[in-house]
Amino acid sequence: MPKPIQNASSPTTQIESTPKLVDSFGRAITYLRLSVTDRCDFRCVYCMAEEMTFVPRAQLCTLEELAQIAQAFTELGVTKIRLTGGEPLIRRSVETLLGELGAIKALNELVITTNGSHLKEHAQALKDAGVKRINVSLDTLDPIQFKELTRTGDLAKVLEGIDYCKSLNFARIKLNAVILKHRNLDQVIPLIEFAKNHQLDISFIEEMPLGVITEHQRDQEFVSSAQLRELITECFDIETSSENTGGPSRYWQVKGSSTKIGFISPHSENFCASCNRVRVSAEGKLLLCLGNEHAVDLKAVLRAHPNNIEKLKQAIVNAIGKKPEKHHFEQDDVQIVRFMNATGG
Ligand code: SAM
Ligand code: SF4
Fold first, then answer.
1. Residue 69 falls within a domain, yes or no?
2. Considering the entire predicted model, what is its pTM?
């Protein structure tokens, strides 16, 4: 069990005096994407190179440190935490972290993004921790294409995980798909059909130039959200939805069904003006923007001042003032050398 965190202020004064995280552009930060590990059992072609060097284990935050970071953010007004990675469900003893986070009263929403490969065995722990919404990345329903895109993945295991989560009645399961023009564009309609048939939602994500990959040229594979919508409207009747899950997705409702289709458009519909989130990497780096290299080492603060949450909170408050205004992605121009798995997608 983690040690109790030393806290200088009483719970009452904390609520009254807590400085909210507001950056220099007036954006309130209420959402943390917390990376549990940079490792993964898949090697998705848009996310990773085939041969990857991961952070040495000794440099990763312990689960206890990740829980302390989460606690500090919630005391500063963060109400939503998404566990991500790498593949969050392959971190050993991730259940312990889930339990710790689930017990944080100020947290309204604990959610997770997973590749689904180990979802079945962890689904109950997710449920017990109070996770209500799960995002499962799924780019294709064709098992051969799935293997090609993930390089190592087994589609059947992912589908089993989704099925099992459905049987546990999670409030919402959403698929995430990255569409590459010459690889899985033909899967857009089947994926929506699948989502409809299983009462799931689905978001399409434009590929981002994070890290140097070799298997394709990103600009050659780019499909914009608008192009996808054109394709989708040939087969489905969709209308704009006011749904907002606090993330970057813009939603459309498939008429006559419960399925919503989201579009995450970092290139074509820049969402920086309403950005409410920051990321913490598995080695404890606070990343202020997905598309910029600014980072602050929270693990160093934690290790210099063990169990002193006030020092940690101060470091976070100071860092938020440096959050950049926006990202600038060029389709095939890698300005960010960090791969998505190290960023925490
Ligand atoms: N391993 C988990 C998974 O795949 O769901 C969580 C981490 S993964 C980095 C989070 C999301 O980022 C996934 O939905 C994945 O498709 C997306 N992603 C990875 N690399 C990307 C890239 N270069 N551009 C856009 N999305 C990317
Ligand atoms: Fe792993 Fe997720 Fe990256 Fe695929 S997208 S390699 S599953 S971290």
1. yes
2. 0.91
